[in-house]
């Protein structure tokens, strides 16, 4: 499962979410959000229209317009729906294993075909509504990942008081940077490498409060 | 100076660049690219038009159209022009000092008003021509920064054979991730913190070939 957003084929019945929809409403939402993901994957933001989404979902355009407003509203709901899952970060038994597995999930999501996750990130630069929803999703995912750091502290791999968020960002940012911003060719070794670098930094005290005397 | 793109007020006479323009052509280019930066900073990609750029620059729209084609061509030339400078990475005497100063430059550029650098990055998701130019600029900047790692190796701070690019990306990616992707509130301590984490990882051998036995 992607740490970013579920691909269309994984969307079954909509789980309880922000809107707490009932049966038919939930089915309509699932159909429409599937159609948004499919249209976005095929045509990108510029090809995404309420008409195409409605046609693909088999619902009336006015239904889509009334419930989601515009393309920004559709994208925001796709992003919000991605949080309505039971995704958990990997649990491999070691900090480095967990972070490497997480980075592999991220790399897989960012290089998937169709490129739904990257299209959603790109769309977040276009629509303020999608931007806010993308920020909520990042926050949800990083918050869920903090358990990885908590487990490492309990195993004695990291000191108590380790700054989980900064460690998680140090571990994962290079993968996003490489693929989303630099748009460089796939570097198969990067997920493991970035995880290992973050663990070495953490072991040296990089995420555990002020610099120890003599280190910085 | 920004590691990403010169703000408009810094653009004097166009230095020798890809197009090797002569006097009047160079002046026109400087006026037009200044106008692109100003329009982009004020209105973003969606407000950027050939008409507004031409009017602001005081040149004919047909001149702009003939030379740059469209908005994507204008943005690509702004990005290419950013490489036509003598920017060098900071030289503070220590690896951590250099990386921290670099991260402060990046943070300053990414939080500047008007937000030209972030607008250019956002535009690179819209225009394939701007995308390729943004990739060239990233490559130019990271290549110039490799001297920071070379100096650290010569000072004995890092082992020979250190992977300069991976170290630079580990040091800088968290700042970009925080501000460009997560769009989180400014974290004034992040530039120093990310630099220090990268240096600690590098000191532990994270960027010097295969993992030492027993570490990973």
TrEMBL record, chains A, B:
Residue numbers spanned by region Disordered: 1-26
Ranges of residues in domain HTH tetR-type: 26-86
InterPro entries on file: Homeodomain-like_sf, HTH-type_TetR-like_transc_reg, HTH_TetR, Tet_transcr_reg_TetR-rel_C_sf, TetR_C
UniProt KW keywords: DNA-binding, Transcription, Transcription regulation
Any Pfam family hit: TetR_C_11
Domain of life, source organism: Bacteria
DNA-binding region: 49-68
Secretion signal, residue range per the UniProt entry: none
Name of the protein: TetR/AcrR family transcriptional regulator
């Amino acid at each position: 499962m992607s740490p970013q957003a579920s691909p269309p084929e994984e969307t079954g019945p909509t789980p309880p979410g922000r809107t707490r929809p009932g049966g038919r409403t939930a089915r309509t939402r699932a159909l429409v959000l599937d159609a948004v993901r499919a249209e976005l994957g095929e045509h990108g933001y510029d090809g995404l229209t309420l008409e195409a989404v409605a046609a693909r979902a088999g619902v009336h355009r006015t239904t889509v317009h009334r419930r989601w407003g515009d393309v920004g509203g559709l994208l925001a709901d796709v992003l919000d729906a991605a949080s309505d899952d039971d995704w958990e970060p990997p649990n491999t038994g070691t900090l480095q294993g967990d972070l490497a597995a997480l980075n592999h999930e991220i790399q897989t999501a960012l290089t998937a075909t169709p490129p739904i996750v990257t299209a959603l990130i790109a769309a977040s630069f276009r629509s303020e509504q999608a931007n806010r929803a993308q920020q909520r999703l990042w926050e949800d995912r990083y918050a869920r990942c903090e358990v990885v750091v908590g487990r490492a502290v309990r195993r004695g791999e990291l000191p108590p008081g380790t700054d989980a968020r900064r460690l998680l960002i140090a571990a994962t940012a290079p993968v996003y940077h490489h693929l989303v911003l630099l748009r460089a060719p796939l570097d198969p070794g990067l997920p493991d490498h970035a995880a290992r670098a973050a663990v070495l930094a953490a072991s040296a005290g990089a995420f555990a409060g002020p610099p120890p005397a003599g280190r910085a």
